[in-house]
Amino acid sequence: MKDREIVFENRDWKKIKELLLEIGNYRYESALENMKLSHHRPLTMKYFFLQATEHCTFLCILYPSGYSARLMKVDEYRNLPKDGWTRREIKYGV
């Protein structure tokens, strides 16, 4: 298991909203159900962000408690932002 990972994050809520519309309600609800988060829906757009690893891009949710979840892979959608990505290091097991 790796102890750290370099990712790029994006919080362009306008683009994320467009992406959610492209994903559609059925796929979004299915992803929440698969992650056992259907009773913990984000209340506002400020809790959504995108996270790109070296392998793929995820739609993520950050909860007020600090817990974050990679909800679904979104590489195949066209409404991914091109600008506004910031580099971040995630440390595991610390």
Key descriptive features of the protein:
94 residues, alpha+beta, five-stranded antiparallel beta sheet, globular
Q: How is this structure best described in words?
A:
- The protein is α+β, with helices and mostly antiparallel strands and 94 residues long.
- The protein is built from 2 helices and 5 strands.
- It has a 5-stranded antiparallel β-sheet, with helices on one face.
Topology (SSEs and partners):
Blueprint: E1 4-10, H1 13-23, H2 25-34, E2 48-52, E3 57-62, E4 68-73, E5 86-91
Antiparallel strand pairs: 1-2, 1-5, 2-3, 3-4
Task: Provide a short characterization of the protein structure.
The protein is 22% helix and 32% strand. The protein is built from 2 helices and 5 strands.
Q: Output the radius of gyration.
A: 13 Å
SSE series:
EHHEEEE
Largest sheet composition:
5 strands, antiparallel
Approximate shape: globular
- In total, the number of domains comes to 1
Distance, first to last CA: 13 Å
Q: How many beta-strand elements?
A: 5
Low-confidence stretches: none
Strand % is 25-35%
User: What is the topology, as strand order, of the major beta sheet?
Assistant: 4-3-2-1-5
Q: What structural class results from the helix and strand content?
A: alpha+beta
The DSSP helix count reads 2
Q: Specify the helix fraction band.
A: 10-25%
Please tell me the overall pLDDT. Answer: 91
